[in-house]
Design brief:
alpha/beta; Protocatechuate 4,5-dioxygenase, Chain B; 11 helices; 8 strands; disordered N terminus
Length: 321
């Protein structure tokens, strides 16, 4: 039986489960107790009603593009209009490659760092427009997917059980590493989404371990996605300086991602020693989300499932499982 109960929609679900309940200002759990049941009964009933039997999910590392690139004419930024078309098409098709529709999504974005791993428990996450200098309409984008406080708390519990420091944040919304790609991946915005931060140390082994800790969620129908870029040297983009380093590092990264589990983890833990590693990531916040996705992939086969050359740099996406 699946274990996750998404309390971000407690009220509406309880209304379905108990149509005669007068919720008023009381919590759904309080109403359920008033009907002679325990909180555990309420939780398990909600799980049974919504989650059902889950199919194991793969994990992904995706390129989330540049700012709001998929929702504007890229010629305004000095590039061809079709610069991001292939990336957008791949992201739109991602859900169709899954064994079933996810029951929840955990997104680790390269745009959120905290002293400890931090999961958002916001029931209705807001928008964080953390990009600058783009057309005005791109600051009006909206991604109204619900949060999932129960899933967020379970994430924190799994991390803490693995000896990793973790906490929750009641107000964190969706930064552009979340809402920009997911407007394409899941445009109905009906699947609950939990943003999960990087730890500010950016230690690759620690983030691989975080992924391993979260791997049980895959068996509960939860999709784990690292959102960043396989190449992220802002000074090199759109210049010949990106061509060779991005190609060399992409070849190494693909070999590492597709290696058997133990070799994969060893290679990724030492990514900075890879050919053109530091040339591709002067600072690694856009690569480290990959460590969580790869760690959660355990020993499942890895594959590069997307690649393109964008702004004179090779960029890729990866899948495990």
């Amino acid at each position: 039986m699946a274990k996750i109960c998404f309390v971000s929609r407690q009220v509406s679900r309880l209304a379905q489960l108990c149509p005669k309940a007068q919720i008023g200002r009381r919590s759904p759990a309080a109403v359920f107790r008033a009907r002679g049941a325990t909180l555990k009964d309420w939780t398990m009933t909600a799980v049974t009603a919504e989650a059902g039997t889950a199919t194991k999910m793969p994990t992904f590392f995706i390129p989330h593009g540049g700012g709001p690139c998929f929702f504007m004419d890229w010629r305004a930024m000095g590039g061809p209009a079709d610069t991001w078309d292939k990336t957008a098409a791949w992201l739109r098709a991602l859900i169709s490659t899954l064994p079933e529709r996810p029951k929840g999504i955990v997104v680790v974005s390269g745009h959120w760092e905290e002293p400890v791993f931090t999961a958002s428990v916001a029931e209705q996450p807001g928008m964080i427009f953390d990009y600058y200098g783009f057309p005005p309409h791109t600051y009006e984008l909206s991604y109204p997917a619900p949060g999932a406080p129960a899933l967020a708390n379970r994430i924190v519990g799994l991390l803490q059980d693995a000896g990793l420091p973790a906490a929750t944040d009641a107000t964190r919304g969706f930064d552009h590493g979340v809402f920009v790609p997911f407007l394409l991946i899941e445009p109905t915005a009906t699947i609950p989404v939990v943003p999960l931060s990087l730890r500010a140390t950016l230690d690759p082994e620690e983030h691989l371990a975080a992924g391993r800790a979260l791997a049980p969620l895959r068996d509960e129908g939860i999709l784990i996605v690292g959102s960043g870029m396989s190449f992220h040297n802002m000074r090199a983009f759109r210049s010949p300086a990106a061509l060779k380093p991005s190609a060399v590092f992409d070849a190494w990264l693909t070999a590492a991602a597709e290696a058997p589990g133990p070799e994969r983890r060893t290679a990724l833990a030492h990514w900075a020693e890879a050919p053109a590693g530091r040339d591709s990531h002067p600072r690694e916040e856009h690569l480290i989300p990959m460590m969580v996705a790869a760690g959660a992939g355990l020993d499942d086969a890895g594959a590069r499932v997307f690649t393109d050359n964008v702004m004179m740099a090779d960029i890729s996406g990866f899948r495990w499982g």
